[in-house]
Specification:
Radius of gyration: 17 Å
GO cellular component, one term: vacuole
Strand content: 15-25%
Distance between the termini: 28 Å
Strand order of the largest sheet: 1-2-3
Protein name: Gamma-glutamyl hydrolase
Structural class: alpha+beta
Order of helices and strands: HHHEEEHHHEE
GO molecular function: gamma-glutamyl-peptidase activity
GO biological process, one term: tetrahydrofolylpolyglutamate metabolic process
Keywords: Hydrolase
Number of helices: 6
């Protein structure tokens, strides 16, 4: 997942607060390492420290399969601007968000799956849905409901 990140950005990830960690639950490193199924299927790419001091797994990827997981919000760096939250918007934070998005899109391009009919594909596109303004009760400005 981070293989094509420049070294200075990997350094920034380990030294700067550039990931949006807005959660109350997660898998601690201890629980992850103690679970044979998790440990054998996923590799830990990063950990982070919660406000209570617990070290949790913040990024992981499948050992054999293209499965990825993050316990942070890469989308907020580029798209969320609510002044009541400390969304990271530094140059490095936006760069991480952009590179991760590119990585995930490129992973999707590897799939040979496709819609059998153009009409079916058109119905599945995000453009057929309307986002709902939610900033008056959520940290997110818009949400899609499916």
């Amino acid at each position: 997942m981070f293989a094509d990140f420049p070294p200075e950005l990997l350094k920034a990830l380990s030294e700067e607060p550039i990931t949006g960690n807005f959660h109350h639950y997660g898998v601690t490193e201890q629980v992850f390492l103690g679970n044979e199924k998790l440990r054998s299927f996923f590799t830990i790419l990063s950990t982070n420290t919660a406000e209570n001091g617990a070290v949790f797994v913040s990024t992981m990827e499948g050992r054999r399969y293209p499965f990825y997981g993050v316990q942070w919000h890469p989308e907020v760096n580029r798209f969320q601007w609510n002044p009541h939250y400390s969304f990271p918007h530094s140059k490095n934070a936006v760069h991480v968000s952009s590179l991760l998005a590119q990585f995930l899109v490129n992973e999707g391009r590897k799939s040979s799956h496709h819609f059998s009919q153009q009409e079916e594909e058109s119905r599945a596109l995000i453009y057929t849905y309307n986002p709902v303004y939610t900033a008056n009760f959520s940290a997110y400005e818009q949400i899609y409901f499916f």
